[in-house]
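Table S7 (text form). Paired inputs.
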Amino acid sequence: MAVTKAFRVQKRIDSLAECSDSKKNLSRKFGTPAFLEAAKKIREYMQAAGLITHIDAAKNVRGLYRSPDKDAKTFVIGSHFDTTENSGKYNGSLGFLIAIEAVSSLVRENIQLPFHLAVVAFSDGEGVRFHSAHLGSKVLTGAFDEEMLYLEDERGITLKELLTELKTDYRLMEKEKIAAEKWLGYLDIHIEPGDQLFRKNLPVAFANSIYGHKRIDIKFTGEAAHAGSMPMEGRKDALAAAAKFVLKVEEFAAKDRNKILATVGRLKVINAATNVIPSIVTCSVDMRSLDNKDLNEAYEEFYTMVEKICHKRGIYFEWKLLEESPPVVCDATLNKNLKEAISSLNIKPESVISGLATEATIISNVAPVSLMFLRDYNGICYNPNEKVITDDIQLAVEITENFLKGLQI
C-alpha cells in the first residue's frame, strides 16, 4: 500500500511538470495558463483525497480535513506550486503532494484529529514573475501589503491588473487569512537544496533554523551613446557600473568574517544593442544569513558600494528593498514530534540549517513552524537534474502520517 502511495505521488509530480509556460523546460509563473492548469489538477488531487477544497483570492489551492471540534485550531502543511525558470519538477510540488497523500490515509481510516488540518499548495512561493515572493503565505497569515499590487512583471503588467484579468478581487484577500489565534502550527516539506543528506545516506532530515534574507532590486541609469563615437573616458555605462557591483558583492560575501550568502541572480539590459552603450540596467540581489545583525550590516555595505560606484561613474541609481525576513528558529516541540516520526521508521533523525526562505519564514510570524527535507540524489535542487527516489517519497509519506497522528502541541 505504501509503495502505491509513493508511486501515486511520483505520477502526480510528473503530471504537474507538464504544466509549464515553456515547451523547452519547466517554468511556471504566477497567474499564467500553465499555473492555472496546475491549480486545477492540484484541487482535483485534494478532492480525490476527501478534502474540502477551494482556490482562494491569492490562488492558493487549499484542502481542509475538519476536526470534530469545530472550535479547534488549524495545523497547516504544504509547499508552493509555482516554479523558477528552468526548474526541477520536485521543487515545491513534492511537499504538498506528500501532504495530500498522507492526509488521504487519515481520511480513509477515519482518524479524527483534535485540530483542523489544512493542506495548502501556495501560489507564489518563488516570486519569479513580480520579483517578490510568498504572496500566498502572506495572504494566509494576514501579512499581505497592498503596495504589492503595484509590482510590475517584465511586460509592465501590475499584480493588480493580473488579478483583475484572473477575475480575482484583491479586496477579498483579507478574508482569506487564518487568524493568528487560530493557527496551531505549520510543516513545510521540501527537497533538500544541497547534497548533505545524500552524503550522509539519509532519506530525510529536519531543519533547526532558517536563514534570514533580503531581496533587493536596483536600477542603474546612465546615458546611451554610440559605441564608435563616444570616447571611453566620457561614457556613462550603466552595465559597467552594474558589473562592478556584481563583482564587489561576490568579493564581500566570499569573506568568511561576513557570514553572508549573496547572489545577483537577475541582470537585464534595457534596450540592449551591440553598438550602443547601455543606459539602463536592472539587477536583483538576494542576501541570506543566520545572523540578523550580519544581514543588516551587509545590506548597508551593499548600498554604500552602489553609491560609490555610481558617483564615480556619473550613474544614477534607484534602490528598492522588495522584501525581508529575519532568521527563524524552528519550533522545538514540532521538531520533537518530527524526530519521533522519523525515528519510528528506524531512521536516524538529523538536523540541518535551511538556506531556503520557504513559506515557513512568513508563517513563523503567527505560528510555530517546522521543515522536513527529502534527499536529493543529485544534490542540485532548483535544477532540472534534481532527483528524489520513490523509496524516499514512501518514507516521507509515512513519516508525515505518523507526525500528524502523534502531533501534540
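Next pair, protein 2 of 2.
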Amino acid sequence: MSNLLSALLSRIQSNTATVGIIGLGYVGLPLARAFSNAGFRVLGFDIDTHKVEKLNAGKSFIKQIPDAVVAGMRASGFEATDRFERLNEPDAILICVPTPLTEAREPDLTYVVNSANAIACRLRAGQLVILESTTYPSTTRNVMLPVLERTGLVAGTDFFVAFSPEREDPGNPTHSVTHVPKVVGGLDDASGDAACALYSAIVPKVVRVSTPEVAEACKILENTYRAINIALVNEMKVLYDRMGIDVWEVIDAAKTKPFGFQAFYPGPGLGGHCIPLDPFYLSWIARHHGMTTRFIELAGEVNTAMPAYVITKVTDALNDAGKAVRGSKIAILGMAYKKDIDDPRESPSFELLDLLLKKGASVSYNDPHIPTLPRMRHWPHLEPMTSAALSPEYLSEQDCVLIATDHTAYDYQFIVKNSRLVIDTRNATKPVTAGREKIVRA
C-alpha cells in the first residue's frame, strides 16, 4: 500500500478527512448531511451564490431537509462556498452535478467537465475524486480522467478515482442515502479501496464492482428498467382505455401474484432527474458502438407521448361538456414530478401547461410544495406563475381541474365536490364516492 493511500485511509477511518461535494442540490445536499452526521468536516461547492448564502445561514432550500438539519450541519462544521479555488482542501471530492440532455437528446456533460476542470486546477497528491452524476459507461475513464491527469499527476498512484452512482429518491425517507447500498467502481484497486472506505462510513452496505464502467452501467440499467416498465403500463393504459377496461384495477389484480410481476403505474409522462434522461444516454453510447437500442427508444417514444395523450383526454372531456379548450379555465394540480416533494425537474406538468396555453386555455396551477414556478431550462418562455389558493371558489370557477401530481396533502373529496370536471391522471380520486360522474381518468 502506498503512503498516499495509507494516509488517506487513516484520515477516513478516523473521521478526520474533509469531504468536498460539488453540487448542493437534491443529491449533493443529502450526501453532505450524511457525511456531516457521520462526523466528517464537509465543504460544499456550488455556483449558485444565493444557495451558498442560504446554507451558510443555516437555511435549507429543499423540503425534505428542514432548516434545523442545515443549522445542525453548520454547527458540526459544514460550510458551503462558491470559491472553487478551495478544492485543494478536501481529501475526497464527490461530483454531484446535473447531466442533462441537449435539444438533440445527446448527453450534455458540461457540468461534469467544468467540475473536472475546477478540480484539476487545484488537484493535489493523495486526493480521492468520485463522480456520482448519472452518465453513460466510460465517462469516468474517457472524459473525466484525462482532464485530471493533465496536471501530471497519475491516477492510482498520485490520486484516486472512482464512480459511484447516486441512488437518491427525493421525498422517500426510507430510501435516503444512508439506507441504500452504494455501488462503487474504482479505476484501480487503490481507488476502489479508498472509495469503499469512504462510503462505508455512511451507508449500510458497499457493493464493490470491478470497474467504473460497471458502476456507470448499473445506474443506467436501474433507470432504463423503470422507464421501460412505465412505458409498458402507459401503453396498456391507452389500449385499455379504448377497450373500456380500468387499467388501475388490472394492475391491482396483477400485483396479487407473489412472483413474476412488479407493479408499475401509468401517469401523464416521466419526470425527475433520472428516468426521463438516462435511457437516452445509453442509446447514445450504443450508437457509438454500432448498435441501435430499439427497445429502449420505443419506450422513450411511448413515455414522451403521454402528455399529448392527456391533453387529448382534456379536449374530449371539455367537448363533451360543450366547451372548447380555447378560452376554458383549466387548473393543474401538482407541478412536482411526483407526489409530496418540491422537485419540478423534468416534470410532465410543465409540458401539460405549455400545451394547454398553446391551445388558448387560461391555465393556473396549485402545488402546496411549489409556491412559485421556477424558471425551467426547457420552458424558458413560460411566464412566472404562483400557486393559486385551493378554495371552493377557485375550483368552481374552473372549467376543468387536471390532477397531474397526486400529493397526499390534497383532499380529493373536496376537490371533486367543488369542481365541474376533474381529469385524473394518477388514480388519485379512487377513494372518492360522491360526484364520480365529474371524474375522467386519463
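The longest strand covers residues 18-22.
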